[in-house]
Amino acid sequence: VLPESIEHLGTNIFLHCVSLEKVKYPSNLDYIPENCFAGCKKLSEFEISSKVTEIHDNAFCRCKILNKVIIPSSVKSIGKGAFSYSKSFTDLSVPSSVETLGSSAFYKCISLKDVKLNGNFNSIPDYCFTLCYSLETISIPSIIQIGDHSFGYCISLKQISFPDKFESIGNYAFEECHNLTSFSLPSSIIS
Questions:
Q1: Is the whole-model pTM more than 0.90?
Q2: 144 within 8 A of 121, measured Cβ to Cβ
């Protein structure tokens, strides 16, 4: 339990605390620092406070048994690799408050099956969902661009549809997506 009186946390504060299982995060902090819980292999529960606006780079990277991720509507930014290599959670909903999504944010989240992207961002960055082997469905209502390798090796992905104003797909965006059977592009596509 971290006391509510804490006003600042530095980077790497709990990096590789391999026995850490649960955290009560101070509700007055509006960010989760870079590498804060990276490598906390036994962290299974974490409630993100409704005051958090930023989840910094690699904040939950390699939290292998983190089994539930609820991103509150206060979050505006999810950093690079924020949840990468977190192997246990299956569902993800990115709220409409999110304006920035970092590259590799959900890289190799191998149990992730269902994603709803409601964020207010224009693109899915490079490597965002690469190696999410279990990903079957993704809802992408308002993006205009998919970056390089964004869904590479998502071998369970079966179909994807794009919003009307969609413009661009990056290199290798759907590389090795063997089960992809339905793919429809709007007339707005440029590259």
A1: yes
A2: no
